[in-house]
Amino acid sequence: MVCANVSGTHTLPLLVIGKSKKPRCFKNVSCLPTLYKAQKSAWMNSALFSEWYTKDFIPNVKKLREREGKTGKVLPILDNAPCHPPVEILNAIDDDFSVMYLPPNVTALVQPMDQGVIEKLKRIYRKQVLRRLFLAENDKESVVAFAKKLNMKDACYMLAEAWDSLERQNLKNAWNKLWPDLEGEQDSNDDHREEITDLVQSIPGFQECDEEDVETWLASDAEDCGFQMLNDDEIVTSVQEESDPVDDETDEDEDNIINESSKGPSSSDAFAALETAMEWYEQQSECFPTQLLLLKRIRDLAAKKRRCTM
């Protein structure tokens, strides 16, 4: 799930929903670049949305407003999806927040995030998947191995990077239909199609794919609304499932086997690796001081933890 303000200056971490509460690929992981929640069918429902709204959205926005010294009400604008709780329930949570739902069946017409934001996010994400595949060994066996190794943690990182790479004007211009008087900015026309096509054609066995094939793939989930349309019986079942426990530890992909005894790299291993990374990066023409300093801070953290274990 995506969320951003009107000016495009503030984005919330993406909410990723998977089927298992603790995927094995999250073992020893204490922090992710996205939010992660679990639901048996990996669909958004009212319980997950309420939890996100209460524990993530409101605190995040309050911290921003405190930093900027802003006061007054916050107006979250939501599409009228069945997975969203009634407006009365949400508006009773915090007096500083007043939710407004868009009219039914107008999501594709005016909902800001549906004005190219989600589509561009998906395209950048898929481009990143292809890049990772391209960097693997260029043979058909490696393509199969790559698909088996790709897990939820990989997806969270690539999604977060794709979300972070969206330009401010992409987010701001998405509000033009809902707020015509909002002063827009020149938007990038890059739909990444040509670059994605080149990446696809570079993969063994896919050289004959053309832009039409790529566009079909890119649009394959265009109708996926992120929640399940339910009849009355399914609604009852869904409500019951919301209170059922989700599996604590299962694999999203049964072929993705991880060594259960692995404790991850030690602080000494991390320090040595970061030393090597810094030495390599500072020799590159693409080296940026801010990124080099970030590597240094992470290396210093590893050094501190290494001393504590001696």
UniProtKB/TrEMBL annotation:
Domain of life, source organism: Eukaryota
Record field: compositional bias (Acidic residues): 238-257
Residue spans crossing the bilayer: none
Region (Disordered): 238-268
GO cellular component, one term: nucleus
InterPro entries in alphabetical order: CenT-Element_Derived, DDE_SF_endonuclease_dom, RNaseH_sf
Domain (DDE-1): residue spans on this chain: 1-175
MF terms (GO), sorted A to Z: DNA binding
PANTHER family cross-referenced by the UniProt entry: PROTEIN PDC2, TRANSPOSON
Name used for this protein in its record: Jerky protein
